[in-house]
TrEMBL record:
It is an enzyme of class 2 (transferase). Its EC number is 2.7.13.3. It comes from Thalassotalea piscium. Pfam families: HATPase_c. GO terms for molecular function: phosphorelay sensor kinase activity. Keywords: Kinase, Membrane, Phosphoprotein, Transferase, Transmembrane, Transmembrane helix. PROSITE patterns: HIS_KIN. This is histidine kinase.
Amino acid sequence: MTQEKVMNEVELQRKKRIIQVFWLGQLAFLLASFHPILTEQRHNLFFLFIFSILLCFAYQQAQQNNLCRAANIIIIVITATILTFSWFNEGARDETLLIFPALITFAVLIGSNRGLFVMLFIIVSNVLVMGYLNNAEIIIHEVSGSGFESAVVTTIIFCVVFYSINILGSDLLKANKQLTQQQELLETEVKNRTKTLEQTLEQFIKTKNELADADKMASLGRLVVGVAHEINTPVGIAITAASLIQDKNEHILTSFNSNTLTRTQLQEYLAATEQTIKLLDTNLRRASDLVTDFKGVAVLSEEECRSVFTIGTLLSNIFNHLQSVSDKERFKVNIICPPNINAYQDPAVITRIVANLYSNSVKHGFDETEEGIITITVTVANSIIALTYQDNGVGVPTSGVTKIFEPFYTTKRGQGGTGLGLHIVYNLVTQSLGGEISYDGTFTHGAKFDISFNQNMLSHDQNLPTSH
């Protein structure tokens, strides 16, 4: 709330109070006119009519937002009304004078200091003059206590009341002003702090995005370096083998052209060529496999590949196939999954995820285990499928827990491990399934992976499409 808005609200409140007092005064004039009408006191009715018209000017000034002038008009008109009836009727009656403290309070709260002191001067002078004239019997009011001594006492009481109300009203106005200023200061402070927090949040988001971009670039750099390093070895061996074959071909060709080629030389050449060709084949296949794995890092998930399927059935089919091409006697698979959990996802993606996790367990987890046990547990809650994969193998070293999903991280370097399997799993879960995967470093009886993804890839709220 700005200072201008606060001031506008204060002015509107003052205007509202002035108009309320105006209508209250008009109502008082209306009620007071009943007695003159019934008793045919036309001069009193005339005075009421005149003062009622004069009071209308206060309403006009208030509507024009001249609030101080409107308040002064109300104070002077009501003061003049009371004093007029006091002079021409029965003097300063006690019940009549009770209206003045209310007028003082009104003037103080409205902030009309000029009207307040004008009213004080008029009332005090009139009461004293009226008391003096009654005491001198120049005019005679039948009200008891209308003499000069009574007028002095009334004036003293009136001044004490005036002073008390004025002090109290001033303190209230001062306190209200301080509260308003404090409110403005607090609102300004809140606004400044909110702006600072917004700027800090923007900077935090910007920094976070920059760090994410830097991390992506660093990850891409490590990936490229890893690919170059992994492929460099088999390709280098293949180049060396090709060079050996070329040298032997030139040597055997020279011997053949000079008719000095012996049977033994030919046999040695054929044996060496066979070994070199096998070496070439092995390393070129190794390079091809690396390229294939590297292509698997890039996840492409097409909408038409998704379909409705039962998770339990899919997992059973996957492990039946995997165990048929591996050492079935060594590995036992337990699938804990309710039969009614369906999903609208790409079954091929889930197949690749489970196959890579299974391959990771076989290659890295079960070297020191006589009987490998793999357990998969599936649950669903709020359309989120939670899949837990665990084995009873050697697990992951503590130093490798934070790097387990990085490309080319492997504990089997030079033993057939490329370090791309779990990185591919991470990309498939986060990109194709739109889910999350984490490794449970607190699990001490092997390796444990927690995977979660949407049951319905379309939306959290939509129902599963109907299978065809």
